[in-house]
Design a protein that fits this description.
Helices cover 31% and strands 24% of the residues. The protein is an alpha/beta fold. It has two domains: 220 residues, Rossmann fold (3-Layer(aba) Sandwich); 145 residues, Hypothetical Protein Yjia, Chain: A,domain 2 (2-Layer Sandwich), CATH 3.30.1220. The strands form two sheets. The chain has an eight-stranded mixed beta sheet with strand order 4-3-2-5-1-6-7-8, sandwiched between helices. A hairpin with a 7-residue loop joins strand 2 and strand 3.
Length: 383
Amino acid sequence: MSVPVVLVAGLHGAARAAVVDRLLREHSGALAIHHDLRQITGGLVVRTVRDAGVVREQVAVRLEHGCVTCTVRLDLIPQLLRYAGQASLLVVDLWDAVEPQSVAETVGHPEADPDLRLTGVLTALDAELMPTDICRGELLSEIGKQAAAGDGRYLAEVLAHQIEYATALVVPETMPAPLPSADEEDLELCREVLGHLAPMTPVAMPGDPLPAVTGPGVCVHELAARVDPASAQLPCMAHTPAVDTVVWHRARPLHPGRFFDAMDDLATRSVRSRGRFWLANRPDRLLAWDAVAGIVSIEDTGPWLAALPETAWEDVPLARRLAASLDWTPEHGDRVQHLVLTGPGLDQDEIHALLDGCLLAPDEPVTVVEDPFAELLDRDAAG
């Protein structure tokens, strides 16, 4: 019989440790495995295995290549299998800056070892730090939290991805001494922000029971579809005292020049924004928008469903086909502008006016002397 495995992610190490400790206390026979990546740029990680009472093992492991992928493949998976017959629950305590998706897809892959059963991905959060950290634009390398040599990710970017991928979010009731627990105002703001960023994800606040982690396995393909730009479950329009979420949804193409000129303004108006869009001069390509703390990423994620022959649709994941059906129009198929912006004091009318001004007028020709997106998108496609 397979042993349940739960991942616990989170940039806030003290909060993550509190959640792991509680899992170990509440599940007799549970073991936690943690890889300390502070020296990973030199190819060295420190593996710790512990239960609710004692540290069972602490070993320095030298890897040929210092990266998270190698750590998971060469050390984490063998250790999970080593302890699979000894534990009632295996808790993978991820290092601060590790995004859980790649680890989840390795542990929970349908062809992975049948002795392991991925049952959840929890992200632990410090209620006092989270609303501030989601606005921080520092590189991980600037604050000593990089997960590999040359890690070019940003703190807010990683935190957003940890929040949005999780099957549940946990704000621990108490923090380890001497750290103070969050006050009611911090907790309320944290709950409010999470309600905008991940409105469909369960949140366990102080006093709530932890999510169940010993039941059936989760499907990593379904988890991936929730954050894939082509099928992501994007938040709806919402207004709360401290935070607003604005949705822009249109079925006309964007003028590449005007939209490129508006990008910085659009990114800096919100704390977090994401979605999918299409440019008039690239009608067959589904482009993804991902911005946090003023840092924008644009990615070509492949063809729109309408650009594929119908014979190829059977090879497209069901979640993608369902998402396409919701946006389908006779004229454009599933081509759509669907951007969601979250932040304090957002003016929906201003944002809609900015973006509507970037749309191609009904009779306007696509006159692009020089495509401003070419260097970014064509370079990525070539790479």
